[in-house]
Amino acid sequence: MKKHQTTIFDIAKELGISKSTVSRALTGHPSVHKQTREKVLQLANDLEYQRNMFSIGLMRKASNTVGIIVPEFSRSFFPQLIIGAQEKAKEAGYNLIISQSDESYETEVSNVKVMLAHQVDGLLISITRETNNFEHLKIFQRKGIPIVFFNRVCDEMIVPKVIVEDQEGAFTAVEHLISRGKRRIAHLSGPESLSICKRRKAGYMAALKKHQISFDEDLLVHYDLTINKVKIYVNYFLNLKERPDAIFCINDPTAIEAIRLIKETGLRIPEDIAIIGFSNDFVSSLIEPSLTTVEQPIKEMGRTAAQLLIDQIARDVADWKAPTVVLKTQLIVRNSS
User: Fold this and answer.
1) Is 1 inside any structural domain?
2) Count of domains observed in the chain
3) Residue 52: pLDDT over 70
4) Which residues contact 280 (CB under 8 A, 6 or more apart)?
5) What are the residue boundaries of the HTH lacI-type domain, all occurrences included (predicted)?
6) Section 15-22 average pLDDT
7) Burial of 157 by CB count in 10 Å (0-12 exposed, 13-18 middle, 19+ buried)?
8) Which domain holds residue 122?
9) Among 30, 232, 308, 326, which residue's Cβ finds the most Cβ atoms within 10 Å?
10) Could you read off the pLDDT of 90-101 as tens digits, one per residue?
11) pTM exceeds 0.90, yes or no
């Protein structure tokens, strides 16, 4: 049997008042007498009445809900970031609808349609590795709904963005390897289309140039961030005529898998090959050897992105700003280097 959900009609009938009076009492309207409001709230509590926030949002032309779309949940980075965003949203009185695109452009497009259907007041998003077309996101601009990018951003849209010092962090990581006497430093990067990969590659190249180490194109590989493919590219590096003595990886999951595979060959880390990652995932300090990595302020990124979105929501469209907030990184030196 279908369960009956209590409505304002039920409360109105029980108390012998109009449904409009019940509605005003539930939303705190000053025209409702204090005693009547107390009776309505008490009965609503007794009957486990659940307010329809979507309908209330339509009346107010605001849903008090924001959306967040992330590309994956397979590592700790994005869940931590969501926690930060949710904390800030809650402080400001907003609910958060969470969705993940599973690194699929088509799924991202579908997720965006769901957010629009739920009439979110704004959207936070980190794009997938496949996303090269942004028409589905430009709809938000045309509709006057604010959007904020974080981590993986769209350079062609003039909207707020939150990133970290990817280039500087990568530069510091590679310079650290050079200070340890490493000279054949490989870079296992991500898709060339992602801006974070471009920035980290630029940092890698800048460090080599500063220390007058010739760039060897054999030591730079882009891959699609599918972890089971790391084996292909690690084996490629190891089978070079002159194998690298260090690998700077695009992120920690890539670096952790590289450590596992290199250990299986009997090579020593860091004596034969040093490894550095990027992000400081929670498992990075637990593996053996522990991973040297570039730490990102993950929760702060989520909180900052949410605050930028809330600020946009509070402004008229004509007053929208498009700042790019760049957060600091820090090199965490551990045993892998």
Assistant:
1) no
2) 3
3) no
4) 252, 293, 294, 295, 296, 332
5) 6-60
6) 87
7) middle
8) 63-164+298-329
9) 308
10) 999 999 999 999
11) no
